[in-house]
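Team,

Forwarding the record for the chain on the shared tracking sheet. I've put the sequence and predicted structure together so nobody has to dig through attachments.
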Amino acid sequence: MKTKILIYIISALIICGLILTGVNFYKNVLEPDSKAGAGNEETTANGKTEETEFGDFTVSSLDGTEVTSEILKGHKVNLINIWATYCGPCITEMPDLDVIDKTYGNEVQVIGFCIDIADSTGNIDADLLEQAVRIVNEVTKVSYTSLIPSPALLKGVLSDIFAVPTSYIVDENGKVLESFVGRKSQDELERMLKKYL
């Protein structure tokens, strides 16, 4: 039984990686001229601009409330966690993120972005949205803010994501201080965050 579960988890992770690789290929190769930043941009060697930070953005929360980049203000650092409804490690990590959000007060704020709800044109998959809401409210019961990325973020700073969970430590102006891929324990996350507190 344990072997079957392990095979299922490994298969799911491989499929997730292939899906995100395909999405990234589409965004960066088939749609190269559509890169649109939401904040600070850098010019690459080929002269195109690429989003490097979480600058000015306007997005929706899972309940449809409009949220802007002002949410980042007033915190020493923000831990932005990119997750997906199909990602087991993402869901497993969420309770640890919630503890961090509740423990550090205004020093650290956790924000989740569910990356598979909307596509790069802003179309929202209602079934995936419903699943994300269930994961947040019933499965993990986390209380930190969960958002749907905008097309600008998906084509900008989030366009290079190749696996989930991916997390960013960001200052209150949206500048990325550090990023990392993969599930981290609460202790590992706290060690990383304390460098910036």
